[in-house]
UniProtKB/TrEMBL annotation:
Name used for this protein in its record: PilZ domain-containing protein
Superkingdom: Bacteria
Species the sequence originates in: Geomonas oryzisoli
Occurrences of domain PilZ (ranges): 4-94
Length: 130
């Protein structure tokens, strides 16, 4: 099967909240890329594709030390408790996605050097740097 993804997906176990019309769904960030994320929610949701929501990624256990990263998102697919979102209406540099991706990459203790080099290549291409 051909890989259609444009960007690397960094695995994660960060806590998340997905907020839609005042309702907050909690769960775990399964993975993140420059374009979107895969979330594992604690309970099944009926949010249809195209639904706009705010994704909050808790970068630190203590929100006073570092507040959650907030990214406006749109649901692209739902399968039981798994939910895929794409990022919308954000400036990638301003949102902190690149910094988060680098942080998540460093958290992987068994990260293969080839994977690290590949991720650096994606980042360089994405940021148009040599």
């Amino acid at each position: 099967m051909t890989e259609l993804r444009q960007f690397y997906r960094a695995p994660s176990t960060k806590k998340i909240e997905l907020v839609h019309h005042g309702e907050s769904l909690s769960g775990i960030l399964e993975n993140i890329s420059f374009n979107g994320a895969l979330l594992h929610l604690r309970r099944t949701t009926a949010l249809p594709g195209g639904t706009g929501c705010l994704l909050r990624i808790h970068l630190d256990a203590d929100p006073d030390l570092r507040p959650p990263l907030q990214i406006w998102s749109e649901v692209v697919h739902v399968n039981d408790k798994l939910l895929g979102v794409k990022f919308v209406d954000h400036d990638v540099d301003g949102s902190g996605c690149i910094a988060l991706l680098m942080e998540l990459m460093r958290e992987e203790p068994d990260q293969d050097q080839d994977d690290v080099d590949r991720i650096r290549g994606y980042l360089a291409d994405y940021c148009n740097t040599p």
